[in-house]
Amino acid sequence: MSENVSRLGQIIVVCAPSGTGKSTLISKLREEFPNFGFSVSYTTRKPRGDEQNGREYHFVSRDTFVAMRSQGEFCEWAEVHGNLYGTATQPVVNMLDQGKDVLFDIDVQGAKQLKKTFYKGTFIFLLPPSKEELIRRLTSRGTDSEESISKRLANAEGEIAEAGFFDYWIINDDLDKAYEELRAVFVAGACKPELRTDVEQIIKKDWGIDG
What we know:
Elements: E1 11-15, H1 22-32, E2 42-43, E3 58-59, H2 62-70, E4 74-80, E5 83-88, H3 89-97, E6 102-105, H4 108-117, E7 122-127, H5 131-140, H6 146-160, E8 168-171, H7 175-189, H8 197-207
GO cellular component, one term: cytosol
Keywords: ATP-binding, Cytoplasm, Kinase, Nucleotide-binding, Transferase
Domain Guanylate kinase-like: 9-187
């Protein structure tokens, strides 16, 4: 950890069923707080368009990915449509030590993996105001087939069943209100005692108190 860091970075994990508005809320948070650390993930899929190795992803062979996974180098990984994706642990640890907050937009499975590695993270679950509203949002897009919507709803049911795993619940009924709550959780998380190295120094140096 750098001596100039007043606090360690925090892990922020945001999960939500498709159609809940997670991407919009995360974009607003990134816009207000642009200094989030960013970890380039590893993947076994081929680059698309003008994607560059080391920028969008670290593109590796399946054998390389599996070897890294076997050696415990990933803090979370998943297989999606036959391709493997994973986040290396060490770059995240380095950013946290530098005082950078790291935000993860992942599924419930990935969140559970992360908690095993970064058990002091802040885990947030976003919910739609009702099942009917989620159906309306998914159908109003006009981009998904009935089969796709049915699959997304089935996935949503499974994800909502895991809501108890998370530290905070936010209902995205009103976007501004939901963002205020997400922002509040993020700001409060930065004040956790285990992250406040500046306060720890005050307690030890000025007051001579250990622990």
